[in-house]
């Protein structure tokens, strides 16, 4: 089994640039996932994000999760549960408008740190999109522009904790799915694993590495690249020991952005494989079908496209 791709972004600045770009290309084409080191976000800052996230869970979320487990009778499961996940989460929206001020229970320090974290991740997401453009032969800024609606991109963070689970064979931390959006940047627990991706019909562990950022590609990048890059199914396996922290930030198209394959990537002998649609319409469909295969979602958007073509300026 090939080794999960871990890429040192520092090597982009020297004579190893070509080899590093090739690593990124291979990861995008064959994995849909990779892990980056030396990404420009200071280690001590990531340590602060981790500390404050874990403190917030202990203080504000842990008891609520225990009450939920008790109310849903999830303690001593004997049959498999397929309509719930063993996770405790909250969502932060950054762009186009922040909801940070509306989230209860966040300390002032945590609020400020997460605002700064979002700025750093937005910058990293846009840098990574440009590296993808370079590998795809697209002009610099093409993917960022493709994601822009009237108010720019949509950007938000899902903060999750996966507490220890007594019956990990009966309930998933998070059920298998592909991500609907654009490019996803994950800052995950440095010691407790559980994230897996599906490669060649086998589940492969995404290794926890301190101070790394895990990158994965969403459905929209599959569409824009006309299938050259693919979003990949992944899941979280609940663990019996140790709570796992997961902070996933989603750099997605604006709700009114029109998504379609880049003309340069539609080869002459291969017609456009993927549909053209408004991102918000895709998200409405995804909301009910997240834990199902993505192909029927693309087909449904194709059917919508033929009945109601999108007018673009």
Automatic annotation (TrEMBL):
<keyword id="KW-0408">Iron</keyword>
<dbReference type="InterPro" id="IPR044861">
    <property type="entry name" value="IPNS-like_FE2OG_OXY"/>
</dbReference>
<protein>
    <recommendedName>
        <fullName>aminocyclopropanecarboxylate oxidase</fullName>
        <ecNumber>1.14.17.4</ecNumber>
    </recommendedName>
</protein>
<dbReference type="InterPro" id="IPR026992">
    <property type="entry name" value="DIOX_N"/>
</dbReference>
<comment type="similarity">
    <text>Belongs to the iron/ascorbate-dependent oxidoreductase family.</text>
</comment>
<dbReference type="GO" id="GO:0071398">
    <property type="term" value="P:cellular response to fatty acid"/>
</dbReference>
<comment type="pathway">
    <text>Alkene biosynthesis; ethylene biosynthesis via S-adenosyl-L-methionine; ethylene from S-adenosyl-L-methionine: step 2/2.</text>
</comment>
<feature type="coiled-coil region">
    <location>
        <begin position="107"/>
        <end position="134"/>
    </location>
</feature>
<dbReference type="InterPro" id="IPR027443">
    <property type="entry name" value="IPNS-like_sf"/>
</dbReference>
<keyword id="KW-0266">Ethylene biosynthesis</keyword>
<dbReference type="Pfam" id="PF14226">
    <property type="entry name" value="DIOX_N"/>
</dbReference>
<feature type="domain" description="Fe2OG dioxygenase">
    <location>
        <begin position="153"/>
        <end position="253"/>
    </location>
</feature>
<dbReference type="GO" id="GO:0046872">
    <property type="term" value="F:metal ion binding"/>
</dbReference>
<keyword id="KW-0175">Coiled coil</keyword>
<dbReference type="GO" id="GO:0031418">
    <property type="term" value="F:L-ascorbic acid binding"/>
</dbReference>
<keyword id="KW-0479">Metal-binding</keyword>
<dbReference type="InterPro" id="IPR050295">
    <property type="entry name" value="Plant_2OG-oxidoreductases"/>
</dbReference>
<dbReference type="Pfam" id="PF03171">
    <property type="entry name" value="2OG-FeII_Oxy"/>
</dbReference>
<keyword id="KW-0847">Vitamin C</keyword>
<keyword id="KW-0560">Oxidoreductase</keyword>
<dbReference type="InterPro" id="IPR005123">
    <property type="entry name" value="Oxoglu/Fe-dep_dioxygenase_dom"/>
</dbReference>
<dbReference type="GO" id="GO:0009815">
    <property type="term" value="F:1-aminocyclopropane-1-carboxylate oxidase activity"/>
</dbReference>
<dbReference type="GO" id="GO:0009693">
    <property type="term" value="P:ethylene biosynthetic process"/>
</dbReference>
